[in-house]
Amino acid sequence: MLILLLLICVGCSKDQEGVITASGVIEAIEVNVASQIAGQIEAVHYEEGQAIAKEQLLVELDCIDYELQEMQAKTNLDMLKAQFELTVKGARSEDIKQAIENKTQAEANYTNAKLNYDRVKNLYKTNVVAKKMLDDATNQLEVTEAQFKQSQEALQKIKKLSREEEITMAQARMENAEWFLKSMKERVKDCKITSPIDGYALKKVFEPGEYVMPGSTVTVVSDLKKIRVVVYIPEAEVFRVKYGQEVQVKVDGYKDKAFTGVVTFISEEAEFTPKNIQTKDERVKLMFAIKIMVDNPELKLKPGLPADVEFK
């Protein structure tokens, strides 16, 4: 986020043929470093004005609650993973064992019924037994054969017991737990607030013991190695300014030195005059904001200083 240190009204003139000179103010590019989570500040590791490196630890929050939630989330995930694996594997071994016993018994019943049927059938052929006994033996054979087939099917089914929807639900619960654990890990990570850029700490907003909310700015870091100058160009001259155009920037403290800048922004709307101005004489007073980025590796250019910009 860019926060402007200072902005003043500036003038613009045409010093020589083809050269536009405008005056503006040097601005620092600032970043508001915010907390992503709520918590009490445990430690502050910087002072105002201190040089800050990218990824340097700035503020630590009390993380006990988040660490406990992370541990609980991990325990829950481990449990759901185990449940998912069991679901994928299918029925319990005890259930399979019982199904095998049922099949074995049904097979024995069928074998006995077939032996009995063959015996009665032979006796019936010699008129030793009545037709009814043969019919009973036939019925018994058919019943036991059906039961045997059912037991075979039941055993195969129980080996593939976990239905597709059960596996899908178990997987969804596991994936949800994985996402929750990941979010808890991110919260624990967010307990340590680091600088997103190289720069200087401009402001200490909180002290240890104070409570912050998500989105609260805990410090402001400025990148002084790149500064910006904002100037205003009249409507009649703005067409001569182009994106990416190189310009010369001068400040009073370095009269014999010019700093090279690049145009990075040209306003689409005029400023400083009412929108209802329609006459030709008044329209030339409309001004357009121009932003110039300047490399400042030696930190010679300070925020707030006036600067003159030459457009050629």
N- to C-terminal distance? 31 Å
Which structural class do you get from the secondary structure elements? Answer: alpha+beta
By CATH, the superfamily of the largest domain comes out as Efflux pump adaptor protein, beta barrel domain
- Main β-sheet, in a few words? 6 strands, antiparallel, barrel
Rounded to the nearest angstrom, the radius of gyration is 42 Å
Mean pLDDT: 84
Shape: elongated
Regions with little confidence, pLDDT below 50 for 5+ residues: 1-11, 273-279
Query: How would you classify the quaternary structure?
Result: single chain
Order of strands across the biggest sheet? 2-9-12-11-10-13
Beta content: 25-35%
Would you count the extended β strands for me?
13
Q: Spell out the helices and strands N to C.
A: EEEEEHHHHEEEEEEHEE
Annotated CATH topology of the largest domain: Elongation Factor Tu (Ef-tu), domain 3
- CATH first level of the largest domain: which class? Mainly Beta
Question: How many helix segments?
Answer: 5
Share in helix: 25-40%
Number of folding domains?
Answer: 2
Task: Just name the CATH architecture of the largest domain.
Answer: Beta Barrel
Pfam families: Beta-barrel_YknX, HH_YBHG
Domain YbhG-like alpha-helical hairpin: 61-184
Domain YknX-like beta-barrel: 233-309
Coiled coil: 54-161
Question: Which descriptors apply to this entry?
Answer:
single chain, 38% helix, disordered N terminus, 2 domains, 5 helices, 29% strand, alpha+beta, Elongation Factor Tu (Ef-tu), domain 3, 312 residues, six-stranded antiparallel barrel
